[in-house]
Fold this sequence. Notes:
mainly alpha; 9 helices; single chain; Putative tetratricopeptide-like helical domain-containing protein; E_motif
Amino acid sequence: MILTTCIATPTHHPDPPKQPPQIHPPSTFSPPNNPNKNQTLSLKHKPNSNQTVSWTSSISHHCKNNNFLKAASEFIQMLEAEVEPNHITLITLLSLAGEAWDVIKKMPMMPNEVVLGSLLAACRTQGDVELAEKVMKYQVELYPGGDSNYVLFSNIYAAVGKWDGASKVRREMKERGLQKNLAFSSIEIDSGIHKFVSGDKYHEENDYIYSALELLSFELHLYGYVPDFSGKESDVDD
């Protein structure tokens, strides 16, 4: 889980906690611009058995840094810890080995847009426009009226400097009346679900949350972290 400057808007909130809410990050972290990308900072000794997201985030980190052996090793540790991987875990892991597309095509069930989006995210990391085009074409064939992954597809073009392709996708979005949905993440605290959106400061624990973010940012800076904006979404006008 990558923490950014975002604040929560609760969909349901129990009685306000007396102590600041605890934030549980993924099991490992490594700054994207760290010259030693094989070294990770341990944030938690060992994820609990139900923390599939934490393990998947850590595996995804190694895949993004093209470290297949580390990713495979962590996947084995995940299984040994009796944490059950989900389809996102598997697609993330297989994407580095170049096998994810074949796996998706041979799946006994029809892949949903979330699965295809995971592969598109891997295409963006690897700069693989050719595979991204195949995946998006496949999605349109399966879900003609679907509206997912268009922004991601456009950003894949933009990331490699193919602005004509990015503009074409954005024009198609406008023609179909598609709009970019507001991105958010969520966290469960004491049976309450809190949604985090960028720049929102209306949460009643706003001061606590910002204090925690500032502390984390300071500690990451001490470990040599340098913000990487290469994954920032591009706004392309036609």
